[in-house]
Amino acid sequence: MAEYFTEQLFDGYVFHTNTRFEVKNSLITSLTPNSTPGDATTLEGLVMPAMVDVQVNGGGGVQFNEAPTLATLQQMANAYLSKGTGSLMPTLITDNINTMQQGADAIAQALQWNAGAIVGVHFEGPHLSIAKKGMHSAQVIRPLGEDEFALFTRKDVGKVMVTLAPETVSINDIKRLTEAGVIVSLGHSNASADECLAAFDAGATGATHLYNAMSQLTGRAPGLVGSALHRNNIYCGLIVDHQHVHPISAELAIRLKGDNRLMLVTDAMAPAASEADHFSYHGMKIYRKDNALKLDDGTLAGSILTLEEAIQNTHFDLNVALQSTLKMVTSTPASFLGLQSNIGILAPGAIANFTTLDKNLAVQQCWRNGIKEY
Q: Is the pTM of this model over 0.90?
């Protein structure tokens, strides 16, 4: 058992002062605001839940698609821990069924290794729009088949999130997926507003990297952007690296969705949280240049963003209140995944994944399962 005291603590929802909390057997067992230090260990800076990223393709120099193994997931999780991210949804972008199955097998192993660090898997594709494919390989974009459905509904891989284009997947299949417990998010789509709203009605609950690779909001055609912003219950991921989304557009989305439904995500690739200068995908080498990852034609190919940088950009550059900023990387993504009792919060019964930040929102220390690992 360990006891800690901090003058400032964010629990995933609100701030507390002079808080004493206890950790036992990898869980938070008590949390008492307006307390005294007593014999507890005093932590400097702001204590908050370790952050939750629902879209991370690689990091620490490794890419999940290129090496769909337990070792890759461990390297990613350990690299991001130093940036304050404690829980990941490793993301496998569009690929062949064998690679997808290997990735799922690795996720199952990772859940046995650390179910608080690797909480499930995000399949971004392969059921996408060719017109909005971005960097995804057109050669393996395909309709939803029974092999994919069986993979998406495996019960040994934790939470399963699937990004799909609703114009390429039938409403009945979206219902089948959501009724089987799959979290469906719309993305890489050129769908009309009517198609998007029908998919939301069928159980889809998210929009993947809002604004990017999707039908835009115009006066007569709201597209996926407008549909996702309009529906109050839809969660939206947002990449705040000042590369993917203009700061004005990012601020508007946050203002419209609010911190209950807007999640900061990274869409990070192998070079993130590392010194690597490139990564590979389906024979393409994508290089890091000017703080971005781009194909030769200028198409953005994921990011090198970390959530540590995302909260700094959001709070300091977009002037979003700190409580809202931190909520969008903790309890809100956890709620989207249905894991708000376990991760992204500091409360009795939650996994003791927490971090400390300085006044510049830079990560100072990080604990995982109650053990200080950074």
A: yes
Q: Active-site residue among 267, 290, 297, 358?
A: 267
Q: Please give the Cα distance from 176 to 161 (Å, whole number).
A: 14
All structural domains of the chain, each given as residue ranges with its CATH number in brackets, are 2-47+349-372 (2.30.40.10), 51-337 (3.20.20.140)
Residue 267 annotated to the active site: yes
pLDDT in tens, 155-209: 999 999 999 999 999 999 999 999 999 999 999 999 999 999 999 999 999 999 9
Tell me the mean pLDDT in the region 221-245: 98
Structure tokens at 40: 């507890």
